[in-house]
Input
Amino acid sequence: MIKKYFTVKGKRIGFGCPTFIIAEMSGNHKHDIRRAYKIIDEAAYAGVDAIKLQTYTPDTMTIPAKTKWFKIGKANTWAGQTLHDLYKTAYTPWEWQPKLLKYAEKKRLIAFSTPFDISAVDFLEKCNVPLYKVASFENVDLELLKRIGETGKPVIISRGLASIADTKLAIDTLKKAGAPAIVVLHCISSYPATLEQMNVATVVDVRKRFNVLSGLSDHSLGLTASVTAVALGASVVEKHFTLARKDGGPDWAFSLEPDEMRRLVTEIRDVEKAIGQPTYKPDKRESENIVFKRSLFVVADIKKGQTLTRKNIRCIRPGYGLAPKYLDKVLGKKSIKHLTSGTPLAWKFIQR
Output
């Protein structure tokens, strides 16, 4: 049975709850802590629920090798760089992170991070983060998953390139280690991803297949994929966030700018309003349009004791009379009082 929701810092995440919207800072601070603070300011102003950092160093991710295996291919956003050089550009200095996390909390954002190795988890535990994120390329690192699960905090994990078997193993590892709640995000590990790649319907399949809450980590351009995911029931949406794409940075190509993030939040909240709850009852405003329904009306004067026929009773607009389904039941009955043309027919006028 899927856990319907869990709570982080007083905010419910899950079924029937507002979508948990995460702004991912990543390396878009460009090694300027003032810019990092400004990103947090803009995220708060945009109305997101959370800001997310990444916790690693170039040396916890890889080694400074320049051989062909460590060079990024031409088809990638970071083509030509070595992995170590990329992570040197993109990482967030650890000495910043306690300050940034506290600052974000002052801005009423839930602040947390993605650890990329066990030392990062130990560090973030000292920072007392309220939940964890597992990156798509780390979802097969069972040792890391076990350590994260052992913290006893909720976990959001990106599926990325993981197979069905890998995803199940990751979920089982986190649960067994002690994770109290898990959200699996559908994620396309292309930077940026095209809409044709997104297959957002997978958000629904993840929820059903793995019996977990699901969502989307969206590396596509624009808002379409994220808004679609919410319409399909995503509990969490994550988007990379920058002050301005023209400023560059490791993730500029698939990051939203402040005005776009505000628009995303507005559109997601509007979609949530439109989804609402299953209902077959008209609300007050809709009920005002009863005038456009058909119902049974007197269309020619009827004397007391006179028989109701198709000549004096018709199914017409507006909808204030008996429902049309009763036409055959009233025809042939007698009126118990004088009825003038234009009167909505009611049972109280008809002899039983």
